[in-house]
Design brief:
Number of helices of chain A: 11
Radius of gyration of chain A: 25 Å
Shape of chain A: elongated
CATH architecture of the largest domain in chain A: 3-Layer(aba) Sandwich
Shape of chain B: globular
Number of strands of chain B: 0
Radius of gyration of chain B: 22 Å
Number of strands of chain A: 15
Strand content of chain A: 15-25%
Structural class of chain A: alpha/beta
Order of helices and strands of chain A: HEEEHEHEHHHEHEHEEHEEEEEHEH
CATH class of the largest domain in chain A: Alpha Beta
Number of domains of chain A: 2
Largest sheet of chain B: none
Oligomer: heterodimer
Distance between the termini of chain A: 66 Å
CATH topology of the largest domain in chain A: Rossmann fold
Order of helices and strands of chain B: HHHHHHHHHHHH
Chain lengths: 363, 278
Amino acid sequence: MTDVMETSCDGVLLQPLRPGDAGAMSTTTLPHTPSPLGSDTGAAVRLNELRRTYGTGADAYEAVRGLDLEVERGSVLALLGVNGAGKTSTLEVVEGLAPATSGSVEVLGLDPVEDRAAVRRRTGVLLQHSGFAADLTVTETVELWAGLVTDARPVEEALAEVDLGGRADVAVRDLSGGEQRRLDLACSLLGRPELVMLDEPTTGLDPESRRRVWALLQRLRDAGTTILLTTHYLEEAEVLADRIAIMAAGRVVREGTPDELAASLPATISFTTPRGPDGPVVVPPLGAGRRTDRDRTVVETDDLQVTLTSLLTWAAHEGIRLEALDARQATLESVFLDVARVAADAGETHPSTYPASQPEDLR
Amino acid sequence: MTTDTLSPRTTPTPPTPPSSRPSTSPWRDGVRRTRALSGANVRLMRRNRLTTLYAFVVPLTPLVLIAFADGSTAAAAAGAGSVLLLALVFPVYYTVLSMLVTRRDELVLKRLRTGEVRDREVVASLALPGTVVAAVVMAVAVAIGLPTGLPFPTNLPLYVVTVLAGAGMFTAFALWTASFTRTAENAQITSMPVILLASAGTLAPSLPDRAAEVLSWTPMAALDTLQRVAWFGLDTDGGSVGFAGSWAEAGQPLVVLAVWSVLAVDLARRTMRWEPRS
């Protein structure tokens, strides 16, 4: 009897962790106690009620305002937001470069400030702007970083991975922007990190360089590396991310898979408003929002299939032809614009409202 | 997928799980990182013509004063003051200042601080190359003097302490100066106050009593007094002391040096910036 109970417990309650199934533990209610070595399980990053304030008194500015976020192990999470939304301010706390003003921060089960050495050995960071000594060559730069990392991978291997093997003896000052970015990534990845934090990895790169960086990040993800990145390119988030968190005014306002986010706004059906002998034909309610936009009728719905079926059934019954019929799910872009619009209406993310000392995305 | 055509041939390496990461000693790791960074700094010093001149050539020139002192202790002691001054001001103070400002502008310091390396290791790696140059120059000065009849240092430990403490203090002054130095070129102007303060100190022995008294409280005067007593066994009145007496003579200048060092370190700590002003 006991055996049966245990078996069923194993099978139902304690599902075995598969490799890569990193999130399995994060949904349990086990109390989390950070161990000195950190844990191999649980969320890679866990932020709770995170706040970060710059300055004091009348000049104080709160860049991060009670942010909750979890990044599952082995997953890619993109922090998306307009400039000044608080992406970099948040990332700096996760990276251990700045302390949180309040709230809790857990990185690989550890505190990035208290457990600095242990966390830094297992993470890789890419800042928004690369920082290299212009007079060193590519190889010398990676060799220097190899000397700064515990258990660094071979330099040639690191360069080959970012496709810079052929540029090994070139001075950093002579590299293109895309090459510098990939060199920077090579340095970030030298210690085979479990978690990498990338602040706008492809901002300012040409499309070809951007795709090279994406390919590299996709290979990293496939190898099991957890990636937390910020971007303001929607396409980047869609291509790379398992989950997307949209930030506005220091908070995460939407979070989910790209599909979930798209599903959070209504789908739209539109067609040229049909004309009968008595003028424009009015479409029946169909249980969804309905408006006209010049000569088109636009129907908004949370259930595209049902509404579309009703519409087509009605049209067939009435013998009406719906010209230029278009049915589509909301896109990530529409979700993002919706968030940006709401935030702008609240007057919170407009750069001109920031104090000059605000050392965020606005440099 | 379109990106496949751009993928390099290498297979991605999976991250190292924590259990298979080697355990290491923090102290050994710190030494390894400091050595790696110092090596890169030496390389960068040699690639910049001005830094090469200031760090490796200028400090050698006053060695002539030792060679031509002709065994005269008074002349050699004055010359040794200049040797120490140039060895600390150029390879240490000015080089640390210009490298720090350059690396800061290049965002290298900011980038380094995202990794495992500690702030103190970054600072040590900036100061180490110049400190080694200063120590070598002071050793060469003794080696040059011996055949001309100059003595071996009366108090070798004090001689070494003088050079190292001086290097530490000037490093702290460099970190502080960097806080109001916008660019590496700008360092030529912003370094003047500290260089003047340092130069004034070596004038003390040749000035009237009142002026000498005031100047004796400057950091370089303290260092000059220390090298005189440590190498030549000379007290401030020109008398001579032995090993034991040299410690007593060193008391006042060591206190002066300590006070200036504390001040310099405090200024550096409070003003240190790791990235350019935005």
